């Protein structure tokens, strides 16, 4: 296939209803000549940013076979003037992602899905693939009512540049610092994913206009566990996550097989003691709000309210309110009342 025009002759692309992008590029429903429904990812890059990385990623992915890996059917690369376009065809999943359906799942179903995911990650680890971009949005249910699922991102055997990631919520500290990437980065991401899947909150914040990548990066690099959020996890899962979210890669679980073994054996009996009420200096309300992605409330609070919080209680209680300017409607209301009163008094005389 030489160009996009030839591609469009073989596939009907539904541009009117795009699918969630889940990363770089755009995703659409397409039908082939046999009316089979597929998903199409379209990625446009300037030649200066394209060294064949994305082509290599998908070609390596096509070599892997696993029930929970979404098949990539074809990768077409078109070069038109100053743009390199990737057209990637894959199976269509209609059931939404793990993030969108987590609230509908029972605790037992969540545990089952996480254990299945862990087996897949062990498989990819043995194949030498480092995902580097593991997130809930890349785990798709094939059907709306079923729990059969597939992963749409198989990772790579080479480090991915940071422009590959549109948000930093799942990235390990070494990724953000531009260091060499290894399996420990996926161990970190699994800890973030597990926490988000169970609690509905990302440990270091959800990207938004208020929660920028820079703010999320700063929290990750601080290397502090979001303890108040992790307390919402069952003890055995908290034990796993704590071993994932260590700032130093060497202090995390050494592999997904080791993580699976730790899950099976569970924490030591005295592990719960380390999670007793933390000292007041360690747990901060502001830090807890930040970890749960609510720092925007602080940023958007009115300045007068911020000032009142710094004013002693008695001074606030008896402080006079600032006078408001009189509006034209208030003047007209007063005049109307005066005229009505004058008419009433004149009728009495």
Describe the structure.
With 349 residues, the protein is α+β, with helices and mostly antiparallel strands. It folds into 2 domains: 8-91, Phosphorylase Kinase, domain 1; 98-299, Transferase(Phosphotransferase) domain 1 (Transferase(Phosphotransferase), domain 1). The chain is 41% helix and 13% strand. It has helices spanning 4-10, 53-61, 98-101, 107-126, 173-176, 183-199, 213-222, 227-230, 235-244, 256-265, 285-291, 295-299, 303-310, 313-318, 328-348; strands at 12-19, 26-31, 37-45, 72-80, 83-91, 139-141, 149-151. The strands form 2 sheets. Strands 1-2-3-5-4 form a 5-stranded antiparallel beta sheet, with helices on both faces. The radius of gyration is 28 Å and the shape is extended.
Brief descriptors of the model:
alpha+beta; 2 domains; 41% helix; EC 2.7.11.1; Phosphorylase Kinase, domain 1; Transferase(Phosphotransferase), domain 1; 349 residues; five-stranded antiparallel sheet
Shape, principal axes of CA atoms: extended
CATH superfamily of the largest domain, by name, is Transferase(Phosphotransferase) domain 1
Kindly report the average pLDDT value: 82
Rg over C-alpha atoms, rounded to the nearest angstrom: 28 Å
User: What would you say the CATH architecture of the largest domain is?
Assistant: Orthogonal Bundle
Helix fraction bin: 40-55%
Number of helices: 15
Low-confidence stretches are 279-323
Give, in spatial order, the strands making up the sheet with the most strands: 1-2-3-5-4
- CATH class of the largest domain, please? Mainly Alpha
Q: Structural class of the helices, strands and pairings?
A: alpha+beta
Main sheet: strands, sense, barrel = 5 strands, antiparallel
